Amino acid sequence: MTDPVLQAAVQMLSEMTSPAYFIDIGLADSAICRMMQVSLHHGLSGPCTYCYASWGLRLSAVRHRYGDGYRFAKLACDLVAKHGFIAGHARVHCPTAVAAAWVQPIAVAIDFARESIRAAVETGDTLFACYAMFHHNAFLLTRNDPLDAVWRESETSLDFARRAKYADVADIIVSQQRFIATMQGRSATFSTFSDAQFDEAAFEAQIIGAAAA
């Protein structure tokens, strides 16, 4: 893609897609489809690879075309490697990790997530470092890793998300921690996340209030 105006437009759509998931999933899908349309008509660029990976994730998670979704997302990783789109490395490996979890051994999804974290930290992409970290925690739980080990991973990722000021991701990681605490018998009862240090109702109210703001 050689047109600088189109490159700028695709870059803008790429930047807005992930935050849009937390606000309006239809808006996120529209941005993905628009990026794909521009790429198919005007050629490939680094940000376009993210739309391929995101579409692969949507094929898996929404349309239940798990094999197609993984292949589409993996294509994005291959294109990033082939063309040296270093800035897009973390952004394609993160959704590919999620798509992989449906059809590949969970270790494959963990490897994609770790690669996304590594690339994100190296390139200063704190948003996708945060995304990849909470997915990584979920994959470790899925693999049935020792809960103490997953808790330590969650502490690292929560500290990173809070320092990066991504409250939505921090809330997700807190939810993962409360699940771990409950599985370890540290909550008041098995049917609540609350304990002496954590109030489930207050946490829910905070999330609802933030979403309504």
Account of the protein in words:
The chain has 213 residues and is mostly helical. The chain has 10 helices and no strands. The protein has a domain at 1-105. The mean pLDDT is 90. The radius of gyration is 18 Å and the shape is globular. Helix 3 (46-61) packs parallel to helix 5 (89-103) and helix 7 runs parallel beside helix 9 (167-183). It has helices at 4-21, 25-42, 46-61, 66-83, 89-103, 106-123, 126-142, 147-164, 167-183, 200-212.
Which range best describes the helical content: under 10%, 10-25%, 25-40%, 40-55%, 55-70% or over 70%? over 70%
Question: Assembly type of the shown chains?
Answer: single chain
Return the structural class.
mainly alpha
Enumerate how many helices there are, as a single number. 10
- Main beta sheet: strand number and arrangement? none
Please report which band the strand proportion falls in: under 5%, 5-15%, 15-25%, 25-35%, 35-45% or over 45%: under 5%
Present the secondary structure layout:
Elements: H1 4-21, H2 25-42, H3 46-61, H4 66-83, H5 89-103, H6 106-123, H7 126-142, H8 147-164, H9 167-183, H10 200-212
